[in-house]
Amino acid sequence: MIKTQRSQGVSVVPSNSKYRQNLKSIVFFSFVFIGSHAFVQAEVQDAASPNKITSAGSEVDTGEKELETISVSAPSEVNEVEKYGFNIDVISTEEYLNSSKDINQVLNATPGVIIRNEGGLGSSFKLSINGLSDNQIRYFIDGIPMEDFGSSLTLDNYPINLVQGIEVYKGVVPINLSSDALGGAINIITPGLQENYADISHSTASFNTRRTAINTNYNLNDYFFSRISAFWNASDNNYDVNNIPNTDEFGNVDGTKTEKRFHDKYQSRMFSWKNGVTKTEWADELSVNFILADNEDEIQHAPASIDTVFGGLYSEGSSLLSALNYRKEWDGFSVSSYLLTGEVTETYFDVESKKYQWDGSYTDKTESRAELNGVTARGSIVEIKDEVARANIYGQYEISSIFSVSSGISYNRTVRSGEDKLDDRDIGSSDPTSVNVRFEDPKSINKMVTALNLNYIGVGSGSLFYKNYQLSATVDDYNPSDNSDVNDAVSQSLHGFGLSYRYSLFDGLTVNTSYEKSVRLPEIYELLGDGGIFIRPSPLLEPEKSNNLNLGLKYDGLVGETMYLLESNLFYRNAKDFIRFNPDQPVTGVYENVEGVEVKGVELSSVLSFSNSLSVNAAVTYQDIISSSKTNSSGGENIYYGVRVPNEPYLFANINIAYSIFDKFYNQYAINWSSRFVHEYYLKWDYSGNPDDKDLVDAQITHDIEASASFLHQTYNISLAINNLLNEDIYDNYRIQKPGRSYALKLRYNY
Hints:
Layout: E1 5-7, E2 10-12, H1 17-43, E3 52-55, E4 58-61, H2 76-82, E5 88-92, H3 103-107, E6 113-117, E7 125-129, E8 132-133, E9 137-141, E10 144-145, E11 165-170, E12 184-189, E13 197-205, E14 209-220, E15 224-235, E16 240-247, E17 253-260, E18 266-278, E19 285-298, E20 314-330, E21 333-350, E22 354-356, E23 362-364, E24 380-398, E25 403-420, H4 435-438, E26 443-458, E27 460-479, E28 484-506, E29 509-520, H5 524-528, E30 535-536, E31 544-559, E32 562-582, E33 589-610, E34 614-627, E35 651-662, E36 668-678, E37 681-682, E38 696-697, E39 700-711, E40 716-723, E41 731-733, E42 736-737, E43 742-750
Parallel strand pairs: 9-12, 30-33
Antiparallel strand pairs: 1-2, 3-4, 5-11, 6-7, 7-8, 9-10, 11-12, 13-14, 13-43, 14-15, 15-18, 16-17, 18-19, 19-20, 20-21, 21-24, 22-23, 24-25, 25-26, 26-27, 27-28, 28-29, 29-31, 31-32, 32-33, 33-34, 34-35, 35-36, 36-39, 37-38, 39-40, 40-43, 41-42
């Protein structure tokens, strides 16, 4: 255990000996890799002649035996992309379908990936891949971008039982996704349409948490299909929060205390109905998909601080989307496309003129303003409405057995309007905080990405591609000096390119390298804010640019009945006009450009599977994220040049051990133990001063355990999980505590 001195959830480093304590955890994970490598080297001479199975998208020598329990069949598109040298991890969800884990928990065990949550179910999260995070990472469902889908359709809402696989692209993103991803992408793959199946699950957990998922598909004569997917998530999130400032009636802090979160209930719902035809002469798939989702979220405190407590503030979100999908493959030519339209609404309710304390008590505000200091005595009900449109077409043609070309074009449009339903003042009011004034005219943002790609298969295999990015937007440029509110037209045109290459040095050992000059265009809420709730407008944001480089080595095979996979990857990112959120005020913040950020790092991972029953997975990532610009935004000297960027984890690791057995009736029993370590990191710039006095986000070591049983060929399933087994105080963000020990029971029916 890493010991720290705590003060209100803040660690103080007592001496350099603390780092020696942390080394114990690092050494623990290192032994896994060293032991794995030694075992392989000792036994490799006795390996049998290989047959091939697929594991996480790679070929593995298996000897003469079928190892069905460790076989993972990734979608064909994944193998096609991976063979050209892109740095991609493919996660099959088959082993997680009986688990209470959500998508974020599964991704958090992927090398190079770290996810930071602000609380329990439904809380905001920040996903990082190799040092780049937030909107620098793009999210997709079956290749359709999820940006601006609303707060109801996010990774932490989407149940694992609605997912067949997850693709994690690191740094370099192929053109078939046609997106402005700066540092990587996550693509959720849903189950196929040619089979009949029903998957129904329900879990109940601590803090009155409930999660239900339904996924069914009916296919008639391998032609017509109809699929219904739905989920419902809910939680009170009323877990204990330690180290809360204890204040007297005058607001003076007198020590700390423990309180329960009392205003953090959350629920989200989604219903999706997809219908169409497959395997016709004119279409491999032609379908129409309708999606309806909504959520309700009580807000306990501001995103970056627990000092401002709310007791009445809450939000509601809704998304109504429809999509048309088409794909067809002929000899040597294939095409896929989609068209999506819809409306996404987010509403914030701030109608209580009260000031709350962490024990739930409150006093009436003397200034007759709401919790967020609403613009009227009645508070505010801010409704922000986005009309979204997405379109994409992608085609590929095989010139010969060696070369193929592909091209794609993607168009995204969002039109935003909004109003404060309690602000009945005339448009043009002199009060600049009026949301009705801020959205007097609808604001829009348009993005278009076009791309061209050449693939090669010969001595190794590789890909060379070019991307063009177009941005046009109508945004607010408010000038407080003369209270003017002018619509500005923003236009940007940028270019990017990249390449990838894969080569097999010998059987079982491959090298992968990829490079991309990438671009990420600002999002609408980065430019316009959220109506002044938590994010203020920043209309002058510049697009982000980055040079991304990966160099990876993969070694896999079979020794007797033991399958092994060892991977290492070096990565480098050099980002300019880096967009970061700056919480510069107690409640609100603003997105701003940082001149330059450089990321250098390495990730190591190993997979060992023994005799179809026992498997050990481990991964460790180190990344150094530093300020790389010698000047600041105003042209002066950057005093933080060469200094590590604060509030970003730089060393983390995880290990997972799973054991399963079958009885004579083919019922399966399994137990799984996992542990995760995150090294401490500074909250603010590590530039000058005494390091012992600086604020830290604590080092974290957490343990989870889960047991499951499956009966009648996995038709009936049950699992019991204990998360945060040792009930540690854990913080992904400064002083914002995550849930303690929790229990989860899940029941699942699968046909």
